[in-house]
């Protein structure tokens, strides 16, 4: 009697739509910063304070904020495009 062994390969398939990150902005003076609000409790307050700090301490010229519908839902393509068009740096909300 011959036995068969099933071998599974646990490697994940690589996504084909990965884009290289943009070069980091080292000097924030005069730059616009985008903030994606993840809708978790109090993140809107943190985003407001962070925006004010970036403008006051680092010379950021403006803040562009977008709020997701829910923490588990990704930002829409329109949100991401708007942030890419208007901002040199984007911060995404995370954590609890």
Describe the structure.
With 96 residues, this protein is an alpha/beta fold. The protein has a domain at 32-92. It has 2 helices and 3 strands; from the N terminus they run E-H-E-H-E. Strands 2-1-3 form a 3-stranded parallel β-sheet, sandwiched between helices. The relative contact order is 0.25.
How many strands in all?
A: 3
* Average of the residue pLDDT scores: 88
* Quaternary: single chain
Poorly predicted residue ranges = none
Helix/strand class:
alpha/beta
> Helix and strand string, N-terminal first?
EHEHE
User: Portion of residues in helices?
Assistant: 25-40%
What fraction of residues sit in β-strands? Answer: 15-25%
What distance separates the N and C termini? 57 Å
Mass-distribution shape: elongated
Spatial strand arrangement across the major sheet: 2-1-3
Largest sheet: 3 strands, parallel
Whole-angstrom Rg: 20 Å
Number of helices: 2
In short:
The chain has helices spanning 43-58, 77-86, and strands spanning 32-37, 62-67, 89-92. The chain has 96 residues and is an alpha/beta fold. A three-stranded parallel β-sheet has the order 2-1-3, with helices on both faces.
